[in-house]
Design brief:
Elements lengths: L2 H16 L2 H6 L16 H8 L9 H13 L11 H16 L15 E6 L4 E6 L2 E8 L12 E4 L2 E3 L14 E5 L2 E5 L14 E3 L1 H10 L5 E5 L4
């Protein structure tokens, strides 16, 4: 690849990867909202998830527990209502936990590529496998929101930058590994369950992103499939 083309690819990666920072910077509520007394549509399910007494009726203690969960995962408004967004995050967590250590049970991620990073958009999970052997994961990830979906298909890591910094917001994005037109694995400073999602990148916790960095190299395959709920 010539110098001009290389600079173009790098610039594309920097520009596209900067986009999720609008969510990083603006998705965490500034302060807890006043607690609601309203019983939510998913009251019983949320109570059960949080280990609260399951009676289907909102209480002050229920609201405090729900509000703490919403604040931790940047769910807004965080007024303690057991609504569809809050239950959606909890339901996804339950489904992710149920996968256990066999994320490729259905065989949707290729097993004939050697080492490959798999991304299941439906379950918001990623892992690294070598043939049929699980190398690392599965780990929860945060992929593209509606209109900025993480693109599906077989890709390859083409550029890595361990200390990547957004040129637009001057915010660090550590362990960046680009695999498709600016979309990349990288760590994020908020919950990986925070809705609505990134602008296409695959967000990970710092520890998971660091492990991916140590296991993957330029030219390694990445396979993205499914559809984000």
């Amino acid at each position: 690849m010539g110098d001009t083309r290389r600079r173009g690819v790098v610039a594309l990666g920097i520009t596209a990867l900067a986009a999720p920072l609008t969510l990083v910077m603006g998705s965490t509520p500034a302060q807890a909202a006043s607690c609601t007394t309203q019983t939510g549509a998913y009251q019983k399910q949320v109570e059960k998830f949080l280990g609260r007494p399951v009676d289907g009726k909102q209480s002050a203690a229920d609201c405090t527990a729900i509000q703490a969960f919403q604040t931790k995962h940047s769910i807004s408004p965080n007024a303690g209502l057991a609504g569809p967004v809050t239950w959606g995050v909890m339901d996804l967590m339950n489904k992710q936990k149920a996968v256990g250590k066999n994320p490729n049970k259905a065989g949707k991620c290729p097993t004939n590529k050697g080492r490959i990073a798999c991304v299941d958009l439906t379950l918001q999970l990623s892992w690294i496998q070598d043939g049929k052997k699980l190398v690392y994961g599965p780990v929860a990830v945060r992929t593209g929101r509606n209109g900025h979906e993480t693109r599906t298909g077989l890709k390859k890591i083409y550029w890595r930058h361990i200390d990547h910094v957004s040129s637009l917001y001057n915010v660090p994005m550590p362990y960046s590994q680009f695999f498709d037109g600016g979309q990349a694995f990288h760590s994020v400073g908020i919950s990986v369950w925070a809705p609505p999602g990134s602008h296409g990148c695959v967000n990970m916790t710092k520890s998971d992103a660091a492990k991916y960095w140590s296991l993957l190299r330029n030219g390694d395959d990445v396979f993205v499939y499914g559809r984000k709920p």
